[in-house]
Amino acid sequence: MSELVKMTPETLRELQLKQLDMLRYFRDFCNKNNLRFYLIGGCLIGALRNKGFVPWDDDVDVIMPRDDYEKLYQLWREQGADGRFRLLKTDDNMFTGNIFITITDTNYTLVKANQTDVDIPHGLVMDVFPLDVCPDGRFARKMQYIWTMLYSLFLAQVVPENHGGIIGFGSKVLLSIFRGKKTRDKIWRFCEKKMTKYKLNENKCVTELCSGPHWMKIEYPKHIYDGVAYVTFEGLEMPCMSGYDEYLTMVFGDYMKEPPKEEQVPHHDIAYMDLNSPCINYDSKRK
């Protein structure tokens, strides 16, 4: 599996259509439990521009207000929602390598290049990000960055990609000092409390702390999420934030204009994919 998977347009479209079952199941679970979520990023652009997937997009991304995000994890467990579709989140019983929840469809196999050695069900994946509150104060906001970076480091347990210099060196030093699982767990749980302690009614903006260093620096006016709008995505009615135009313009500029041809490519490195076999086959081979 040293070479990455290269997908033809036909294979990519097959992947996209298979992901719809997962999105539909997730939507129905959230609706049943009155949980809020919104399409974001490429999926939202695709819904507005293509009525479905952007032709070169290879995954599904949604976001949930932090309270709903935490309820999702709890209710999924309480209601025994795991089956074909599994909710994966690093906790006392599992390490995923991600700093956010993923939903995986175990009917198929897809292994991301950065997770080949991670012991999880390697199915088709939907990323579920929490939406958090920014503190208004500049110092408090800088501290939120720091808590989030430490949270990400000790939860994922790898040095952040594309971070050299002081951040990369400091990350390596911290991981070398704090090696024990229990210690690392205590650190990321403490940092998570610190970075998510801010209240929406007391502050002006929200942000995506768990979407990566670039995204956590963007501050969205909270009125963008005051209401819910609905868009058509591959024939499914899906929710998005009522201020979707302001959100997308802030992040992507003229989002209705397609990017240059050289940028119209999938953005995830895939080490292995089998759209005809359940991921249990791959997992059993590894063991």
Describe this structure in words.
- By secondary structure, the protein is α+β, with helices and mostly antiparallel strands.
- The protein is about 40% helix and about 20% strand.
- It is built from 9 helices and 11 strands.
- Strands 1, 2, 3, 4, 6, 7 and 8 form a 7-stranded mixed beta sheet that branches. A two-stranded antiparallel sheet has the order 5-11.
Query: What Rg do the Cα atoms give?
Result: 19 Å
Query: H/E element string?
Result: HEHEHEEEEHHHEHEEEHEH
- According to DSSP, the number of beta strands is 11
Structural class: alpha+beta
Low-confidence stretches: none
Helical content band: 40-55%
Q: Which shape, going by the Cα principal axes?
A: globular
Q: Describe the largest sheet.
A: 7 strands, mixed
Distance between the termini: 16 Å
**Average pLDDT level:** 91
Number of discrete helical segments = 9
> How large is the share of residues in beta strands?
15-25%
Can I get a quick summary?
With 287 residues, this protein is an alpha+beta fold. The protein contains 9 helices and 11 strands.
Topology, pairings included?
Blueprint: H1 9-32, E1 38-39, H2 41-50, E2 60-65, H3 66-78, E3 85-88, E4 101-105, E5 109-112, E6 124-134, H4 138-156, H5 165-177, H6 181-195, E7 205-207, H7 213-216, E8 220-221, E9 228-233, E10 236-241, H8 244-252, E11 270-274, H9 279-286
Parallel strand pairs: 2-6
Antiparallel strand pairs: 1-2, 3-4, 4-6, 5-11, 6-7, 7-8, 9-10
